[in-house]
Amino acid sequence: MSKWEYLVIFIQAQQANAAAQEMGAVPHLNADKFTEELNRHATAGWELMQFEWVGDDGARAIFKRPRG
Q1: How do beta strands 47-54 and 4-12 pair?
Q2: How far apart are CA 4 and CA 7, in angstroms?
């Protein structure tokens, strides 16, 4: 049976885009910050399990990887 370890991170949003929010889109301008952070953990062997926006403050990501 596989054994896993888990990691929960919070990525702080930098800026909000009011125009995007008015159109019903996610209001965060700098999506690259989220991509860079997710890729950094992926390179370390973490697999993204869940990603969810937490209001306008940022997003929470949950990862897992085999325990070795």
Answers
A1: unpaired
A2: 10
Coil, helix or strand at residue 52: strand
The C-alpha atoms of residue 39 and residue 46 are separated, in whole angstroms, by 9
Plot region of 47 (φ>0 → left; ψ -120 to 50 → alpha; else → beta):
beta
pLDDT digits (tens, 9 = 90+) for 11-67: 887 665 566 667 666 555 567 778 889 999 999 999 999 999 888 788 899 999 999
The Cα 52–Cα 60 span in angstroms is: 5
What does pTM read for this prediction? 0.72
The rounded distance, in Å, linking the Cα atoms of 64 and 36 is 18
Q: State the maximum Cα–Cα separation within the chain, in Å, rounded to a whole number.
A: 49
